[in-house]
Design the sequence.
C-alpha cells in the first residue's frame, strides 16, 4: 500500500473508479472535488489521530487501514499525479486524566495524574522513556508489521520543537473568536473556568485546566494562577502550553493543512466546532468521514483505558491481517461488535471475496473489498477448505498439531499439501489455536434422545453404503434422505426434490450438538467428506455409546 506500489492507471480502470459506489471511492471523490477549479497542492495530506492514554486497540488500526484505502482510491482518481502523505498523529502531550484499568500497577501511576503522557513513567518497564512513548511504539509496531505507508507524528515533539508556534500565536490573536465558538457548547459552570489554552505547570509539570487572567496576543503569552496560587505568565510557544482537545483538532488541521481525516461517531457533534476553529485560524477544514464505533460482546464501546474488546495482537493470534482489514472495510457506518466470535466469519468472508475477484468484471472488482485491502493487487490464492470447516475438523479430531489436520486434508484432496498450499497451512495453525482457547472450553456435548438415536443410527448406515471417495454433495443428500423419513425433522414449509416435505435445520443442529458439542457447524456433507465417512461413523458410534458426553 505504499506510494511506490504499482497502480493500474488504464482508462478503463479510471472510468470504473469514477462510477464506483465503494465508500473509499466516494470519499476520494470528495477530495478531488475539494480542489475543483484550482491546482492541487504539492501534497494532499491524509491524517489519523491517536490518543495514547492506553494501549492501541483495533479501532485505532481501523482508522489507518480505512484512511489508506481512501488514499489509494484518490491515487487512482488522480492518475497518481498528486503526491500524498498519511500522517498518524499522536496526542501524547495530553494529560493523563485517569489511570487505565489495564496497566500492571495502577498505584504506580497515581502521582502522575494530569501529567502529559510523555512525562508519565512507563509502567510496563523496558526501554521506553514514558507511558506515551510505550503506547506510541505499540501502535507503530503493528502499523509497520502490516506494511502501511505512513509518517508518525508526536504532539509533544511538534509543540516543543516549535512546529505549532505560528498557529499558537495566531490562536492567541483569535482568542476571543475561539471563545465565542466554544462557550455555547459548555455548561454554565464550565464556561466560568474554560480556556482553549492549557498551560503546563512550571512547578508540578501537570496540564492545568484553569481560567486565563490575561491573554496577550502581542507578546504571545498567557497569565494564570498556578496550582499553588502563584500568578504565572508563560509563552504559548515552545511546548509551554497545549490546546484543549476540541480547539486542538482545528489548530492541527490549520497548522498542517490536513485534507482528509476520519473519526468515530462520538466526535460527530464536535466536527462543526473543529471546522470553525480551523477556519478562524486561517485554515480550510478537511473532508470528514464519520464511522460508527466498535463495541465489545456486551455492546459497550471499546475503550483504550478499559482494555475491553479485542486488541490488535489478540486478533492476529487467531487470524490473518487480511481478515482484520476486511472487518474494517465492511459497513464502516454501522456499529459492529468486535470480539472473538466474529473472527472465523471474517476469515472465511475474506477468502470468499478473494475467490470471487478473478471472475468479476472491472466495476465489480473495484467494489470488492480485496481490491481495497491489497491496493488494487489481490493475490491469487486457492483455498480448498474453509476456516469454519478446519475449526470443526479440529473439534471432531481433537487435533493438537497441523500434521493431524493435513492427514485428513491430503486424503480428501490428493496432491494438496502444506507445501502446495501454504495459506491453508497457515490457517490450520490459526484454527488449532482458536479451537484450544475458545471452542474447546465452550464445548457441551449432550446425549441423544430415542428419536435422535434412531436418526443417528440411520445416518451411520447411510454413510456405510457410500463408496469411500464419495463427495460432499452425495453425503449431504444421503443425510437429507435420512431426515426426510423422520417426522420430527420434516419441514412442511419447504419441498424436497420429490415433492415431499423438506428438512428442518433442527436435524443438523442435532448433529452439531451431539457429535461436535457446538450449536453450529459447517455443511454436514463438506465436513463428513473431509473428516471421512468411516471417521464420521466412528464419531456417531461414540455418541451413541455415551462416550462423548462422558
Sequence:
Amino acid at each position: 500500500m505504499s506510494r511506490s506500489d504499482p497502480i493500474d492507471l488504464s482508462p478503463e480502470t479510471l472510468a470504473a473508479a469514477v462510477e464506483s459506489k465503494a465508500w473509499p471511492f466516494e470519499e476520494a471523490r470528495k477530495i478531488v472535488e475539494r480542489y475543483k477549479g484550482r491546482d492541487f497542492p504539492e501534497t494532499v495530506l491524509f491524517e489519523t489521530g491517536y490518543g495514547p492514554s492506553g494501549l492501541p486497540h483495533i479501532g485505532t488500526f481501523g482508522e489507518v487501514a480505512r484512511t489508506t484505502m481512501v488514499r489509494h482510491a484518490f491515487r487512482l482518481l488522480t492518475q497518481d499525479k498528486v503526491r500524498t502523505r498519511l500522517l498518524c498523529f499522536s496526542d501524547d502531550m495530553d494529560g493523563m486524566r485517569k489511570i487505565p484499568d489495564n496497566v500492571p500497577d495502577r498505584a504506580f501511576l497515581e502521582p502522575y495524574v494530569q501529567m502529559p503522557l510523555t512525562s508519565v513513567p512507563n509502567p510496563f518497564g523496558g526501554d521506553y522513556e514514558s507511558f506515551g512513548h510505550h503506547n506510541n511504539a505499540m501502535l507503530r509496531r503493528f502499523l509497520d508489521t502490516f506494511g502501511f505507508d505512513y509518517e508518525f507524528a508526536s504532539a509533544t515533539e511538534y509543540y516543543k520543537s516549535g512546529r505549532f508556534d505560528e498557529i499558537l500565536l495566531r490562536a492567541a490573536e483569535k482568542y476571543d473568536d475561539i471563545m465565542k465558538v466554544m462557550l455555547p457548547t459548555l455548561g454554565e459552570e464550565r464556561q466560568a473556568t474554560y480556556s482553549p489554552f492549557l498551560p503546563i505547570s512550571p512547578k508540578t509539570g501537570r496540564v492545568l485546566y484553569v481560567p486565563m487572567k490575561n491573554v496577550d496576543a502581542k507578546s504571545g503569552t498567557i497569565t494564570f494562577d498556578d496550582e499553588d496560587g502563584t500568578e504565572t505568565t508563560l509563552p504559548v510557544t515552545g511546548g509551554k502550553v497545549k490546546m484543549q482537545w476540541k480547539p486542538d483538532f482545528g489548530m492541527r488541521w490549520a497548522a498542517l493543512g490536513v485534507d482528509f481525516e476520519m473519526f468515530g461517531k462520538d466526535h460527530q457533534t464536535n466536527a462543526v466546532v473543529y471546522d470553525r476553529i480551523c477556519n478562524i485560524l486561517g485554515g480550510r477544514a478537511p473532508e470528514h468521514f464519520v464511522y460508527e464505533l466498535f463495541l465489545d460482546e456486551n455492546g459497550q464501546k471499546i475503550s483504550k483505558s478499559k482494555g475491553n474488546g479485542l486488541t490488535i495482537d489478540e486478533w492476529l493470534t487467531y487470524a490473518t491481517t487480511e481478515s482484520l482489514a476486511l472487518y474494517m472495510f465492511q459497513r464502516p457506518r454501522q456499529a459492529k461488535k468486535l470480539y472473538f466470535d466474529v473472527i472465523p466469519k471474517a476469515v472465511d468472508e475474506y477468502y470468499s471475496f478473494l475467490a470471487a475477484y478473478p471472475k468479476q468484471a472491472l466495476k465489480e472488482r473495484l467494489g470488492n473489498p480485496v481490491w481495497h485491502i491489497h491496493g488494487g493487487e489481490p493475490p491469487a490464492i486457492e483455498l480448498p477448505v474453509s476456516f469454519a470447516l478446519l475449526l470443526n475438523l479440529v473439534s471432531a479430531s481433537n487435533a493438537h498439531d497441523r500434521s493431524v489436520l493435513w492427514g485428513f486434508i491430503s486424503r480428501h484432496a490428493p496432491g494438496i499439501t502444506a507445501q502446495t498450499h501454504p495459506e491453508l497451512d497457515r490457517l490450520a495453525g490459526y484454527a488449532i489455536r482458536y479451537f484450544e482457547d475458545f471452542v474447546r472450553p465452550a464445548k457441551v456435548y449432550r446425549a441423544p434422545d430415542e428419536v435422535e438415536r434412531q436418526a443417528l443410527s440411520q445416518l451411520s448406515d447411510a454413510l456405510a453404503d457410500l463408496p469411500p471417495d464419495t463427495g460432499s454433495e452425495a453425503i449431504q443428500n444421503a443425510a437429507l434422505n435420512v431426515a426426510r423419513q423422520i417426522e420430527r425433522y420434516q419441514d412442511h414449509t419447504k419441498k424436497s426434490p420429490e415433492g415431499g416435505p423438506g428438512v428442518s435445520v433442527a436435524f443438523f443442529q442435532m448433529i452439531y450438538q451431539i457429535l461436535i458439542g457446538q450449536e453450529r457447524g459447517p455443511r454436514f456433507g463438506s465436513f463428513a467428506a473431509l473428516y471421512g465417512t468411516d471417521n464420521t461413523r466412528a464419531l456417531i458410534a461414540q455418541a451413541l455409546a455415551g462416550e462423548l458426553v462422558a
